[in-house]
Amino acid sequence: MNRRPDGTPLVHTRPARIALAALVLAATGALTVTFVSGGGRGTADAATSLDQFVPIEKVPPNVRVPQPAAGASTGRFTVDCGTNGNGKFSPDNPVAQPGIRNGAEHVHDFVGNLAITANSSNADLDASGTTCRNGDKSSYFWPVVRIDKSVRNDDQVRQALAQTQPMVVCPSVGKRLRAVPTGARGTVDRLLADLDRQQAAANQRMTASRGRIDAAFNREVTDALRARRAATIRQISTTVTAAGGNQPGLVSLVECDVSYDDMHARMPAGAHRASVTAAQAANPRIQCPTVRDKLPGVPAGALAEVNRNLDELDRQLSEANERLVTSRGQGGPAFVDNAILGPLRAKRIAVLDRIAIAIGRQAARPQGLDAFATCTLDQAPGTPGNAPTTAAPTTAAAPTTAAVLPDPQGPDLELPGNTGGIVRPAQVLIEYRGNPVSRVVPMPKFLRALTGDAKPTSRGPANARATWTCSGFADRLADKYPICPAGSQVQRVHDFPGCWDGRNIDSDNHRNHVAFADRATGACPQGFRAIPQLRITVGYDIPRDVQLKGQYALDSFPEENHNPFSDHNDFVNVNSAQTMQRIATCINKGKNCS
User: Fold this and answer.
1) Helix, strand, or coil here: 277?
2) Which of 112, 352, 354, 358 could form a disulfide with 305 if both were Cys (CB 3.0 to 4.6 A apart)?
3) Does the keyword Coiled coil apply (predicted)?
4) Which among 7, 167, 139, 99 has a CA at the least distance from the CA of 559?
């Protein structure tokens, strides 16, 4: 029998944190792909342990630090962005799933950039305020940790999975386009319809996985879809450019994901705690009608002006959402209407009128744009999927959207399956570090980076990383939740890739433009340059009895069921060029700076 560190038997009525691979096995009687935390070794194993907690003393030292060679950059630059004291929580995934609302299906802590949402443009991020003391507008975010002392019913999870149809969810391209020249509009509409057909075909293939998880099959479907989408999206960009327009940044919209969020809808009401009421929608956001996908073809002479005004609409929305965060608790019940929504509508009317005038100088003036001026405080359920962005031919199968996922609700910002009180970090250390064998070059502004993998069960563990430890045990990282000695903090250590391809700020899978250095030597792969390597250490004061009872866990996607190996972290660099040069210089000179 498995036992806790205090010697008491481990029974199934405790708040179990069981990897979903075991649940799939129990639900279906057969398992195509199983996964057990493997310490970042990229391995899979059918013998998933029921115990996802481990005393840190039982984790052998496993952190290797390469010795600096001649020419190494040994400095360190730290940034103080606070511990999310302003309470910016969000289920968006701005790096991995741009444009998809509630894409994470779990709640993140955000520090740094105050405006960022799934829809933020680079210009929005650059215009934002920040929680960082040195003015760094970068966005740093990670899943929250919760304490939940209620007994978790894993039968409900098994039953929900058995009825769940996995869905392919893709970012909307039409809603993110810049102005499309008149001569390219017809071709672009046809290509957007092609994207819809590709997604629908992928979803048709996914019906073979109903009620089960097959990571190899998921990769096969999404890899094939990525290749087709990449070709179509390149064609959209080429078509627009040939007609005199400009469509940068579309590579960020190539990657699609397999979603199991239908499990949320299948969970019984009791799985989402009774304390949650619709009237307590937490973390509301301003939602405005999209305009980019509503415009006709734009005459060549009006492209620049229309794009400036579309960017202004985006900036106004980001500014309003930032104001919503920073003004929380101010005024009475009408504060948001009078101080945020009313002024925003007036600004949008003016900008929409300028767009209509710019187009009307050289073509038929578009009518009715003012219908897109009114924004709302969005507290209603949303759908993380995207409907077709243009009217597809009748022969095209529209992509099926995933199940409706509610916004985080109640005082604990709960989502189905992610319940309990959020543990605020006691400490967040953000540091940029050097390379053991070479100098670093400044990372480019707006670089996106991921570390870890939020879905090692449904995607496979190749990108997952062990992150868990305790203060005082920096020589070891666990892929399970640590049980720390008295007086020691629970910590998560997130190391980001420290090598860059020298060209791109993003890639079609959000990973290929950056790379991790060699673990043994610290050298970057051929063709990559060393950049300031970001490390984020998040520390928590979690009562030891909570640790011993297995009552704390990570927010996760439903198929992960709080798997500790699904820990991850995301980053967008919005440091100014001058600040990033200062960071690189400090590191290259071997200094400690802040």
Assistant:
1) coil
2) 358
3) yes
4) 167
User: Which amino acid would we find at residue 159?
Assistant: Q
| Rounded CA separation 365/355 (Å) | 9
CB within 8 Å of 521: residues ≥ 6 apart = 66, 436, 437
Give the residues across from 441 on adjacent strands.
Answer: none
pLDDT in tens, 165-207: 999 999 999 999 999 999 999 999 999 999 999 999 999 999 9
Q: Which amino acid is at 297?
A: G
Chain centre to alpha carbon of residue 353: 34
Beta pairing, strands 53-55 & 481-483:
parallel
pLDDT tens for each residue of 26-79: 333 333 222 222 333 333 322 224 489 999 999 999 999 999 999 999 999 999
Residue 275 to residue 282: CA distance in whole angstroms: 13
Under 8 Å between Cβ of 108 and 572: no
Q: Are 560 and 454 in contact (CB under 8 A)?
A: yes
3-state secondary structure 86-125: CCCEECCCCCCCCCCCCCCCCCEEEEEECCCCCCCCHHHH
* pLDDT tens-place string over residues 282-306: 567 888 999 999 999 999 999 999 9
pTM of the model: 0.86
Nearest to 382 by CA among 169, 101, 117: 101
Tokens 């190494």, located at residue: 72
pLDDT of residue 379: 58
**Burial track 320-348 (b if 16+ CB lie within 10 A, e otherwise):** bbbbbbeeeeeeeeeebeebbbeebbebb
The backbone torsions φ and ψ at residue 255, rounded to the nearest 5 degrees and listed phi first, read: -70, 130
**Pairwise CA distance, residues 266 & 161, whole Å:** 8
For 473-521, how does the pLDDT look when each residue is reduced to its tens digit (9 = 90+)? 999 999 999 999 999 999 999 999 999 999 999 999 999 999 999 999 9
Contact 145, 422 (CB under 8 A): yes
Are 298 and 306 a contacting pair, CB within 8 Å? Answer: yes
Helix (H) or strand (E) holding 343: helix 342-360
Q: What are the angstrom distances between the C-alpha of 306 and each of 313, 349, 360, 421?
A: 11, 14, 11, 46
Alpha-carbon distance 409 to 198, whole Å? 34
What amino acid occupies position 274?
A
Q: Are strands 76-79 and 592-593 parallel, antiparallel or unpaired?
A: parallel
**Closest CA relative to residue 281, chosen from 148, 149, 415, 92:** 415
Strand 592-593 with 108-112, pairing: unpaired
Contact assessment for residue 50 and residue 16, using Cβ atoms and an 8 Å cutoff: yes
Vertex 316: Cα angle to 294 and 116 (nearest 5): 100
How many Å apart are CA 196 and CA 200, to the nearest integer? 6
Question: 């927010």: which residue's tokens?
Answer: 555
Spatial separation of the C-alpha atoms in residues 250 and 227, rounded to whole Å: 14
Q: Which token pair is 147?
A: 């304490």
Q: How far is CA 329 from CA 86, 248, 488, 592, in A?
A: 11, 39, 35, 39
